[in-house]
Design a protein that fits this description.
By secondary structure, the protein is mainly α. Helices cover about 80% and strands about 0% of the residues.
């Protein structure tokens, strides 16, 4: 089981990092199918997001692809609200949150497929801090509630604001480790962590995510990245529906 988990963690991080999205949303149901309790899978998934996308972010920082000033307000509010979400997960029925999240993922994925910009120059370059703060709060809340990171929320909302998809992936990869880590700490404080599973998934994840990020920036244009984000989000939605029913 541990061997399979390492292989799955590597390829999940490789694919999902192309869109700057944490792969915990796929890894958690897979661990559940292996018979690992969700109470153990959630902190492993959140820490996996933290480690794998930290590797992707280091690559982005090294190659100067990251706009820190856009990412900071999202980080601050996602970090704080992930704690609220993780704590609130004990009081809000998971079924309600999942239904809302599935609907949002379908909307987001379709938006990535059909939302168009006329030219590359039309992508915005300003920094709407209030809107970015609200995005961070919403993403952090869902991250804590579901234990999956907030990348699936941050990316489509930033696209709606008019940012370049390749810039979005770098920012999302930078933000998700913070919200995931705060959620992980909260779950850790409330329960137990399987450190062996956590280490196996995380080591495989950081290698996969780093390779995926390098490939994306060297070989893919913004339009292709947009399509990858759409596929990722729609796959997330289908997977959650499968688990829900």
């Amino acid at each position: 089981m541990e061997y399979y988990l390492a292989v799955i963690s590597f390829f999940a991080a490789l694919i999902f990092s192309l869109g700057g999205v944490g792969a915990a949303i796929i890894l958690i149901p897979i661990m559940d199918s292996f018979g690992i309790p969700l109470s153990v899978a959630k902190p492993v998934g959140l820490f996996y997001n933290t480690i794998s996308l930290t590797g992707a972010s280091l690559s982005n920082i090294k190659h100067k692809r990251l706009d820190f000033r856009i990412g900071i307000p999202i980080i601050i509010f996602s970090f704080l609200f992930a704690i609220v979400g993780a704590w609130g997960s004990h009081f809000i029925p998971k079924e309600i949150i999942l239904i809302l999240f599935i609907g949002f993922l379908f909307f987001s994925g379709l938006m990535f497929l059909f939302h168009k910009k006329k030219t590359q120059d039309s992508y915005r370059e300003d920094r709407p801090y209030v809107a970015l703060s609200f995005i961070g709060a919403f993403a952090g809340l869902l991250s804590g509630l579901l234990g999956v990171g907030g990348g699936g929320v941050i990316s489509p909302l930033m696209l709606l604001l008019g940012f370049n998809p390749k810039k979005i992936t770098s920012i999302t990869a930078f933000v998700v480790p913070f919200s995931s880590f705060s959620g992980f700490l909260t779950y850790w404080a409330m329960g137990s962590v399987d450190w062996r599973l956590l280490a196996i998934a995380s080591m495989a994840g950081i290698i996969g995510a780093t390779l995926g990020t390098m490939f994306m920036h060297k070989n893919l244009n913004s339009k292709t990245v947009k399509r990858i984000l759409a596929i990722i989000l729609l796959v997330m939605a289908v997977k959650l529906i499968w688990n829900f029913f």
